What does this fold into?
Amino acid sequence: MLADGSGRTPFIAISDKNFYTMKLAVSGCAGIGKSTLSQALAKWLKLDVIDEHYEALFDEPNKLKQPAPELEALFRQVLDGKHALEQQYPRFVTDRCPIDLFHLWLVHLPKQHTELTNVIYEDCRRQSQHYDFVVLPNWGSIPLQQVEQPSGYKRRVMDPWVQLRNHASIVGLAHLWLPGIKLISIPQVISDHEQRVHFILNEIQQRQAHLRAQAAPPSA
It folds into this structure.
């Protein structure tokens, strides 16, 4: 029986204790299935789920158009608040991470604030290092859909090309900041939800085996 309670045949046998102590992030643009994947991976791997927690950025119109000091305080509230949540759990999967947050900073950054951006860049880059793996779902393989938001919240941008730009920025930052073995990019051809989960779990298993082999002492 699967972790989600169904009777389907499991994709892989999960017996490695490392599966249950890992820290995962799922990153990328809006509308590519990050939240769905986070929930599914949490069930499979018995991890806690940490939601996006970007409410402070979008709960009022034009909130991201504030002057630099106010905008920095807002981003720090999100960055530090989510980091504090992650520190509370020994194992988790988080929906979005500092890679996504720095992309948002680049989109909305105040002009002529290079030094401030350097600081935000380094803080986001440093906090991204503690994930075991960052999952990057594929863009464009599932329909882009609007989501219900509380009154006053900024609505999802429904232009797929804007989302592609966002996704390319996030993926680029991920490759800039993290070694390739930590990045799990789902191939464009995989759109089925269960196949996505299957792919991620197998990638984690193979990469952990590779890391263990590298760490093993040489045989006499």
User: Anything to note?
Assistant: The chain has one domain: 17-212. Residues 8 and 61 are 45 Å apart (CA to CA). The helical segments are 34-45, 55-58, 68-87, 98-108, 114-128, 160-177, 193-215.
